[in-house]
C-alpha cells in the first residue's frame, strides 16, 4: 500500500518533460524511452507491493546520486511491480518477486546491461526463461502420470499471452509426453549445434540459447541423492530459500579439495537432517566464484531456509565429519545445542571469573590484599602513629618537658 502511494506521488512529480537528476523519477515506458533517446544512463528499479525490504532500498538507492554528481546524464527511475504491465513484460520483471528488481541502461542503450549477459561472454542461463514457467516445469517433472502432466501443459497454454517463452516450455513438455526423455535429449543436442553455428547475439543465437535454457529445466533433479551436483541450470531450483542447503565449492586440480571430497561424501551419506548437501565445480562455472566472493578452495557455504540465496553464511569449521555434522545441528537446533554443552558453559564461567580477577588487579585492590605487611608499613609511615607507639619513653619525655610538671616535683 505504501509503495503504491509512493508510485502515485512519483507519477505526479516527474514526467518526461520534468526529469530530475537530484531525485527519483517515475518509471514508465514513456519516461524511459525519453531518457534513452537522449542518451541518458538510467538505473531502473521495480518495487513489489508486498516486498518488505523494497521501501528501505528505495530510500537507500538515493545514496547513488551522491556517487554520480559529476555524471550529468545519470538518472534513477522507480515504479511498483504490476503498475505498468507492458514495461514489466518487456524487461522480464517477476511481479511476484519478494525482492526489488533492477535494470541498468548504459548511455541510451535499450538493452539493460548484465541482465542476460554472461560474464564470460554470450547470454547466461536465465535468458529465455520465466520464474513462473520454471515452477510449472518442476511441477510437470514431479507429476507421476500422464493426466497430471497434461494438466500442467494446459496451465502453460493459458500463460502464452503473458510470456513469449511459454511456447518453448510447451514444446519441451510435448516431446517428453509423446516421445520420452531420449527424444528431448536429442532435441537439446540439435539446439546446441545450431547455437554454436550461429553468430553471437544474432536472432538465431538468442533463439537457440533460450530453447537450451528451457530444456535444461526438464532435467531430472533428485534432492534425495547424497550429494546434489549443482549447475547454473539447477542452482536456482536447489538453492532458493525454500530449504537449508550446505554447498561445497571446489575446483579441479585442487589437492585440498580432493582430500576433502570423501569427507563431505561421508557426511552426506549419513545425513538424515533434511538438509540438502550439494557440490559445485567452479572450474566450470567461474561466475559463481565471483558471485559469492570465493577465492580459496575448498570452501563451504550455508544457504539458510527462508533467507536470500544472495547472502549465504561462511562455514568456518574443521574439515572433519564430526565438525560438519555438529555445525549442521547447531544451525537446525541452536537452543538444544546450547543446552547440550554444559562443559562449554562451565568454561565460559571460568573465563568470566578470570576476567573479573584481572579487573581487580588492574585497579590495585588485589595487590593490597596479597601484601598485608606492605599495606601496614605504608599506613604507619603515613601518619606516624606506629612510630610513636614503638617509642613510649621518648613520648613520655616530650610530654614532661612540654609542661614542666616533672621538674617542679623534683
UniProtKB/TrEMBL annotation:
- Could you give one GO CC term from the UniProt record? endoplasmic reticulum
Basic and acidic residues bias: start-end ranges: 332-410
Q: Which UniProt keywords apply?
A: Isomerase, Signal
Recorded hits in Pfam families, A to Z, give:
Thioredoxin (PF00085)
Chain spans, region Disordered: 331-410
Give one GO molecular function term. Answer: protein disulfide isomerase activity
Is Isomerase set as a keyword in this record?
yes
Q: Does this UniProt record's set of keywords contain Signal? A: yes
Domain Thioredoxin, chain residue ranges per copy? 177-333
Which InterPro entries does this chain map to?
Answer: ERp29_C_sf, PDI, Thioredoxin-like_sf, Thioredoxin_domain
The stretch of residues making up the signal peptide is: 1-16
Tell me, which GO biological process terms does this entry list? protein folding
Superkingdom as given in the UniProt entry: Eukaryota
Q: What is this protein called?
A: Protein disulfide isomerase
Q: What is the lineage of its organism?
A: Eukaryota, Sar, Stramenopiles, Bigyra, Opalozoa
Amino acid at each position: 500500500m505504501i509503495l503504491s502511494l509512493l508510485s502515485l506521488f512519483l507519477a505526479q512529480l516527474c514526467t518526461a518533460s520534468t526529469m530530475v537528476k537530484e531525485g527519483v523519477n517515475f518509471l514508465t515506458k514513456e519516461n524511459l524511452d525519453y531518457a534513452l533517446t537522449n542518451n541518458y544512463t538510467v538505473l531502473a528499479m521495480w518495487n513489489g507491493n508486498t516486498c518488505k525490504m523494497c521501501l528501505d532500498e528505495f530510500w537507500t538507492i538515493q545514496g547513488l546520486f551522491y556517487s554520480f554528481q559529476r555524471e550529468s546524464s545519470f538518472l534513477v527511475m522507480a515504479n511498483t511491480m504490476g503498475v505498468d504491465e507492458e514495461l514489466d513484460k518487456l524487461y522480464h520483471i517477476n511481479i511476484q518477486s519478494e525482492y526489488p528488481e533492477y535494470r541498468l541502461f548504459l548511455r541510451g542503450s535499450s538493452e539493460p546491461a548484465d541482465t542476460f549477459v554472461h560474464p564470460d561472454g554470450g547470454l547466461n542461463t536465465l535468458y529465455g526463461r520465466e520464474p513462473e514457467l520454471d515452477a510449472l516445469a518442476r511441477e510437470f517433472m514431479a507429476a507421476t502420470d500422464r493426466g497430471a502432466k497434461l494438466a500442467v501443459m494446459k496451465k502453460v497454454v493459458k500463460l502464452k499471452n503473458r510470456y513469449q517463452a511459454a511456447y518453448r516450455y510447451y514444446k519441451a513438455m510435448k516431446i517428453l509426453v509423446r516421445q520420452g526423455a531420449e527424444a528431448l535429449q536429442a532435441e537439446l543436442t540439435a539446439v546446441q549445434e545450431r547455437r554454436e553455428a550461429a553468430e553471437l547475439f544474432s536472432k538465431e543465437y538468442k533463439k537457440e540459447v533460450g530453447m537450451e535454457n528451457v530444456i535444461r529445466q526438464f532435467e531430472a533433479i533428485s534432492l534425495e541423492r547424497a550429494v546434489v551436483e549443482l549447475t547454473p541450470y539447477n542452482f536456482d531450483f536447489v538453492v532458493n530459500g525454500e530449504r537449508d542447503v550446505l554447498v561445497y565449492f571446489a575446483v579441479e586440480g585442487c589437492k585440498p579439495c580432493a582430500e576433502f571430497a570423501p569427507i563431505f561424501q561421508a557426511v552426506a551419506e549419513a545425513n538424515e537432517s533434511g538438509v540438502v548437501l550439494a557440490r559445485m565445480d567452479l572450474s566450470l562455472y567461474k561466475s559463481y566464484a565471483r558471485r559469492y566472493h570465493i577465492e580459496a578452495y575448498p570452501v563451504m557455504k550455508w544457504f539458510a531456509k527462508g533467507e536470500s540465496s544472495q547472502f549465504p553464511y561462511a562455514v568456518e569449521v574443521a574439515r572433519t565429519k564430526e565438525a560438519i555434522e555438529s555445525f549442521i545441528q547447531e544451525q537446525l537446533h541452536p537452543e538444544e545445542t546450547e543446552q547440550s554443552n554444559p562443559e562449554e558453559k562451565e568454561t565460559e564461567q571460568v573465563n568470566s571469573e578470570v576476567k573479573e580477577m584481572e579487573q581487580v588487579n588492574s585497579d590495585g585492590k588485589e595487590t593490597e590484599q596479597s601484601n598485608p605487611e606492605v599495606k601496614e608499613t605504608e599506613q604507619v609511615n603515613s601518619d606516624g602513629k606506629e612510630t610513636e607507639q614503638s617509642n613510649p619513653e621518648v613520648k613520655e619525655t616530650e610530654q614532661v618537658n612540654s609542661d614542666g610538671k616533672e621538674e617542679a616535683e623534683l
